Amino acid sequence: MKPNTGIKTLWAELLPYEFKQRIAECPVVYLPLGLCEPHGQVSAFGLDTIKAEWLCLEAARQAGGIVAPSMGYHIHETGYHAGWLEQTVGEQQPHMTAMPPGIYLSFFLYQLRAFVNAGFKAIVVISGHSGGNQADLRKAADLFMKYVPVQVWVRSDPELVEGLYVGDHAGKYELSQLMHIRPDLVDMSANRYEELPDYGGRLAIGADALEANAEWGKAIMEACLNRLCSEVSRMKEESERTTAKQDVPYSTIELVLKELMQSTEEWVTANPWNGQAAVSEHSRWKPYEYYRVMR
Fold it and tell me: 8-41 b/e with 16+ CB inside 10 Å = b?
């Protein structure tokens, strides 16, 4: 959702002179992350991406900076996702834009490279998809910062409001968020399709979904935005004490990737959660329960 403010913040919409003026004022770039996955019968597939985009666009409007093109694909299916999918979606087709961790993290690192080479001194990554994915993104970002002196800050939206609200999946938290920012993409009456054949059943809807409301969503999103803007202000101030960086070549990313790929067994998205029930042998999700990169 693009705020109707008259302020252009999207990289894709900026003219070259506008880009130069905005980056000179605030050398911060935002990367919204999400994917299409089921959020019950009542909600749009792209909830995760939509809320991440909203937060980045609003933060850029209020605190400065430029919003990069969204990444509408994310890590799913692998590791803990496999058991979660079996439990909440079953053997239904979930219609997801899912990617394996190795491919996703590799592309993520090259996105960071592009940001640095474009002149940004600070990178804010907001993921609307959480559960553990953000930990692997931070692992990749930390390694990138080891080789490239730039600020990279990665958070999922529930992490922005820790201690205030508890995130969920397609429950009161998430559906309320979407009711506030895109009420046209929530239709609670569509829950009738849960009982019809060939529609997929409940499709991972939360137990407290019927408690969702736009007022609650407004409070959540405003709290997320306040935390985000505060962090951007800190990063902007820090960036004023840093000098311009040399272009980052492909070879540097290859070094980062080589080191990152040595730790695949430690990736959160590569294994089930501790104590998580094993995926059934007959399940379509069984092949993804453990993810390993061939080396």
Answer: bbbbeebeeeebeebbeebbbbbbbbbbbbbbbb
Question: Domain for residue 288, yes or no?
Answer: no
- Contacts by 214-217, CB closer than 8 A, 24 or more apart: 214/176, 214/179, 214/180, 214/183, 215/176, 215/180, 216/172, 216/176, 217/175, 217/176, 217/177, 217/178, 217/179, 217/180, 217/181
Each of the 295 residues of the chain gets a pLDDT tens digit; together they read 444 557 899 999 999 999 999 999 999 999 999 999 999 999 999 999 999 999 999 999 999 999 999 999 999 999 999 999 999 999 999 999 999 999 999 999 999 999 999 999 999 999 999 999 999 999 999 999 999 999 999 999 999 999 999 999 999 999 999 999 999 999 999 999 999 999 999 999 999 999 999 999 999 999 999 999 999 999 999 998 877 678 999 999 999 999 999 999 999 999 999 999 999 999 999 999 999 876 5
Is 219 part of a structural domain of the chain? no
Structural domains counted in the chain: 1
Q: In which domain, by residue range, is 68 found?
A: 11-162+225-282
**Residue 102 contacts residue 293 (beta carbons within 8 Å):** yes
